[in-house]
Amino acid sequence: MISLSSVILIIAFAISMNLPSCDKCYNELGPLCLVGLAYSIYAAAIWGSIPYVVLPHTVGTAFGLAMAVQNIGLSFAPSIVAYIKDSTTRMYGYYYVEAFFILVNIIGLACNVTLYYVDIKYNNGILDKVDKGDGL
Question: In this structure, is residue 133 part of a structural domain?
Answer without folding.
Answer: no
